[in-house]
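Comment thread on ticket #2218

A.B. wrote:
> Attaching the input chain for the structure job we discussed in standup.
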Amino acid sequence: MSLPTFLTISGSLRAGSFNTAILEHFAQFANGQANVAHSHYLGQLPLYNQDLDTDTPPAVVAAARAEIAASDFVVVATPEYNYGIPGPVKNWFDWMSRPYGAHVFLGKKVFIIGSAPSPRGGKNAVEYLRLGFTAIQAVVVGDEVLLPNIHETLNAAKSGDDATLTSVYTHILQSCQ
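C.D. wrote:
> Ran it. Output below, let me know if you need it in another format.
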């Protein structure tokens, strides 16, 4: 039996991104239980323009769609910007949710993580994505996962206390079965 394939998407383009760190840590945790690949297309996509979204979309769009189609599950970890999702995440979502009724997310299982250095943990971003994925008929799995004060959680993990992250990663693997 082959291992399930997870594609991870970090909602932050920042070099020292907390969300990217969460997903890299998840890949290490899941080693031997799942194949985990990280998408690097978020910052490379052109701004969504329906005129470009033809039967032959830009090559980077086709590649991003193909990696989602090839995965069993998608895990999105995103910060919250101004009480919403970051612009690159919205742009990615717009490209990947088309063409309407025949896009790569139809029936795809998606797990969403919100994280932020604030005490809310990206709640609005997670709610926005849960609603959006549901609207396009993706299958949002798992309970709402918010990681407030993420800098403290990641610092604790570096010191060997990764109970919070271990709990989240276990939840992802169990929810996506």
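A.B. wrote:
> Thanks. Noting for the ticket: Helices lie at 18-30, 59-70, 87-96, 123-135, 150-158, 163-175.
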